[in-house]
């Protein structure tokens, strides 16, 4: 019996609206190696299982083994649980993750496998096409246009993983080394937690420079159940662990709400490393300093507010990219700094 090379990992929960198109895209893959589809049904109450059963026959007739697991409990156990079960019941050397509301281009598995075969400790992503096309324009642009270096330097932003979960492709061996997805269920950003652990273990990030997935945006998407405050706390702790631990001092770029919120969210040791806020807003600069009124310290911390040209790197930047008509980007580039050494984005 030949070794199964590829497992497509597909968690399903009440996906009847999109499932036909998703499964058709599995059938149309042009990958020539052995391939299986591992489906885990997370307590769907709609017609999802009937659709899966119908497509199981079509897929297996074309040589794609279909493994189906699941449960019919009253409530779903969550995306992390479903992905872990789908991985556990599969047997492929490589794992290709797919969401039930998305659609793969025919060359996706082939091209991502070619990349992953040369990068064993890597999560391989790809560019995407958003549906509807006008939804989340800034986010989609960020997904598709990050440079190879920025895939590792922009891991602290509010956008989350620099290659998005529905495009992930990796070896089973590396997945096992990183560990399973968090199974906390609704409200848990299992993809961000896994991605952070992947980086902790020395993992790399790569993106195939082709649009290989139609990535749907709709109100039922699981990511919408995660609180912004949950994401924020994980981002701050990861920034402290990966960057601030190695800095003796730094400047927060943005004396407004986001910059002050970051300062207040830092642990005491990292608050003490903040030498200044910097900004371009003269009204903020003329105030002279930010006083942290809620601090238990006496006297209360007073952090200077400087014009960005008077501030010293390194910087943690809390300015939203792509929202100032290029003014912020021009200011930053004028300082001739290196991203990943002199500054990190936290916007």
In short:
It comes from Echinops telfairi. The chain has 347 residues and is of the alpha/beta class. It has helices at 16-27, 48-61, 79-88, 108-117, 137-145, 150-153, 172-178, 190-200, 228-242, 257-265, 268-271, 282-287, 327-333; strands at residues 6-12, 35-42, 65-71, 94-97, 103-104, 122-131, 169-171, 204-216, 250-253, 274-279, 289-291, 302-307, 315-317, 343-345.
Task: Describe, in plain words, how this protein is organized in 3D.
Helices cover 34% and strands 23% of the residues. The protein is elongated, with a radius of gyration of 23 Å. It has a 6-stranded mixed beta sheet. It has 347 residues and is α/β, with parallel strands linked by helices. Helix 1 packs parallel to helix 2. It has helices spanning 16-27, 48-61, 79-88, 108-117, 137-145, 150-153, 172-178, 190-200, 228-242, 257-265, 268-271, 282-287, 327-333, and strands at 6-12, 35-42, 65-71, 94-97, 103-104, 122-131, 169-171, 204-216, 250-253, 274-279, 289-291, 302-307, 315-317, 343-345. It has 13 helices and 14 strands. The model has no long low-confidence stretch (mean pLDDT 94). Helix 2 (48-61) links the parallel strand 2 and strand 3 (65-71). The N and C termini lie far apart (51 Å). This is UDP-GlcNAc:betaGal beta-1,3-N-acetylglucosaminyltransferase-like protein 1 isoform X2.
